[in-house]
């Protein structure tokens, strides 16, 4: 039975963390056309094997990865233990279809050593296993191959294998902070996956683990977590993909639901050598603030290349985000919505009596702080260096006595043009 009190306790750290790293790493980095290549190009197991054979990341240092995540201000990370192609990055006893190195172990050790919570992505879908439906499936590489038309797949055997692998991950590696199942579609959902049994087993071994909602849905749909009666396998957060819910997410009673926007830096999860369409770090920073202001987390993806290296663009973006976070992360961690109307010139986040006013647009003269009254303010400082910020008292703004104005003496741009954060301590 879903227990609200247990749930609230379990998700506490995750809700405070707000910012994580997704890592899509696998043999699909060799063809380097994204992690869906097997499906898009309808590649058979036999033809995919050359990529499996070639996948031998010789420059993969997960300690480096963990350092980069930490510097960017990320509090948790999730690695693909197995993606849809079925190729395992861990030492599963249930298959030979796995890397020689146990990347899952390396990842968990390296990230934990940096104090970063570590979780695993696990694909419910498996395009390698003979008992996963082939012909007529929505996305299987052999979905149109008539040769598989009459093949009988013993789905129960697949489920035994899949549950077995999840159990391996839950028992061989110490505490796992997150299990990110992916994903349900058509009639391949909850009951089909034997989700009740699966989650009972997972929570037996890992009582504190956080689960996403994709045993019930995909990136589309919220699942029963957003209803009055979540199932035991509803998961702990909704997982909107490549979108920020415009108004956060509410359940059918109108209460906020925990969510995590999963976002790529370019347009692919897995490494794609021709995809240089990287977002600006300023956009990502502002969107992270938006997530927090709407009660959500952001998990930002990196797709390491076949040698195990982060793309150069990703490293640059992580560094730039890290620079901003070094000054302003107090307005992210442990923060949530301010419950005030979004101000004209930025956004607000809040933790207790600390209101973080994110100014994203410069003004002329006084900068109005929308939504707060003078008599509510105990003090205002610039979050990056603690400088006192005075409420303006000057003839140019005197026509607007109900609005608080501040300014940055003599400055023609914001101290940080991406997002300058004021910490406003409110009177209790
Ligand atoms: C998806 C995709 C995928 C990616 C993921 C991340 O639904 O199938 O390749 O791993 O979501 O959210």
What structural class should be given to the helix and strand makeup? alpha/beta
- Looking across the biggest beta sheet, what order are the strands in? 5-4-3-2-1-7-6
Could you state the order of secondary-structure elements as H and E? Answer: HHEHHHEHEHEHEEHEHEEEEEEE
How many β-strands, per DSSP? 14
Named once each, the bound ligands are: alpha-D-glucopyranose
CATH class of the largest domain: Alpha Beta
Q: What's the end-to-end separation, in Å?
A: 38 Å
* Main beta sheet: 7 strands, parallel
What integer is the average pLDDT? 97
CATH homolog superfamily of the largest domain = Glycosidases
Q: Domain count, please report it.
A: 2
Query: What proportion of the residues is helical, as a percent range?
Result: 10-25%
Strand content: 15-25%
Q: In the CATH classification, which architecture of the largest domain applies?
A: Alpha-Beta Barrel
Total count of helical runs of at least 4 residues: 10
What's the structural blueprint in terms of helices and strands?
Blueprint: H1 4-10, H2 12-17, E1 19-23, H3 37-40, H4 45-54, H5 62-71, E2 76-82, H6 103-113, E3 117-123, H7 155-171, E4 178-182, H8 195-205, E5 210-211, E6 259-263, H9 281-293, E7 296-302, H10 312-328, E8 336-337, E9 346-351, E10 354-359, E11 367-369, E12 377-382, E13 404-406, E14 420-426
Parallel strand pairs: 1-2, 1-7, 2-3, 3-4, 4-5, 6-7
Antiparallel strand pairs: 8-9, 9-10, 10-14, 11-13, 12-14
Residues 24, 35-36, 182-183, 218-219, 241, 262, 269 line the site of alpha-D-glucopyranose.
């Amino acid at each position: 039975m879903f227990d609200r009190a247990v749930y609230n306790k379990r998700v506490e750290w995750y809700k405070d963390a707000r910012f994580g790293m997704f890592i899509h790493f696998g043999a699909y980095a060799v063809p380097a056309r994204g992690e869906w290549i097997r499906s898009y190009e309808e590649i058979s197991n036999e033809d995919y094997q050359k990529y499996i054979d070639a996948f031998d990341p010789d420059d993969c240092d997960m300690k480096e990865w963990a350092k980069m995540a930490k510097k960017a201000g990320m509090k948790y990370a999730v690695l693909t233990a197995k993606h849809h192609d079925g190729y395992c990055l861990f030492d599963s006893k249930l298959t030979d279809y796995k890397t020689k190195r146990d990347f899952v172990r390396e990842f968990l050790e390296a990230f934990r050593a940096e104090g970063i919570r570590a979780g695993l992505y696990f694909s419910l879908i498996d395009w390698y296993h003979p008992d996963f439906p082939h012909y007529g499936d929505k996305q299987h590489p052999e979905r149109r191959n008539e040769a598989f038309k009459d093949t009988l797949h013993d789905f129960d055997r697949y489920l035994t294998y899949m549950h077995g692998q999840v159990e391996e991950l839950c028992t061989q590696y110490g505490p796992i902070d997150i299990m990110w199942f992916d994903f349900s579609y058509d009639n391949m959902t909850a009951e089909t996956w034997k989700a009740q049994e699966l989650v009972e087993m997972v929570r037996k071994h890992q009582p504190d683990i956080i689960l996403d909602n994709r045993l019930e849905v995909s990136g589309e749909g919220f699942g029963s977590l957003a209803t009055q009666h979540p199932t035991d396998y509803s998961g702990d957060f909704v997982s909107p993909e490549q979108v920020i819910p415009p108004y956060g997410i509410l359940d059918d009673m109108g209460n906020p639901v925990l969510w995590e926007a999963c976002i790529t830096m370019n347009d692919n999860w897995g490494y794609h050598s021709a995809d240089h369409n990287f977002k600006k770090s300023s956009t990502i920073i502002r969107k992270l603030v938006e997530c927090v202001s709407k009660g959500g987390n952001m998990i930002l993806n990196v797709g390491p290349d076949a040698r195990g290296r982060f793309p150069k663009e990703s490293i640059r973006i992580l560094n730039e985000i890290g620079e901003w976070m070094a000054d302003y992360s107090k307005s992210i961690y442990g923060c949530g919505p301010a419950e005030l109307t979004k101000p004209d010139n930025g956004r607000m986040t809040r933790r207790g009596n600390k209101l973080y006013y994110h100014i994203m647009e410069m003004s002329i003269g006084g900068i109005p702080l929308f939504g707060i009254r003078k008599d509510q303010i105990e003090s205002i400082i610039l979050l990056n260096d603690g400088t006192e910020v005075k409420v303006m008292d000057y003839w140019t703004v005197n026509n607007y006595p109900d609005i608080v104005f501040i300014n940055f003496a003599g400055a023609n741009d914001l101290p940080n043009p991406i997002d300058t954060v004021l910490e406003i301590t409110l009177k209790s």
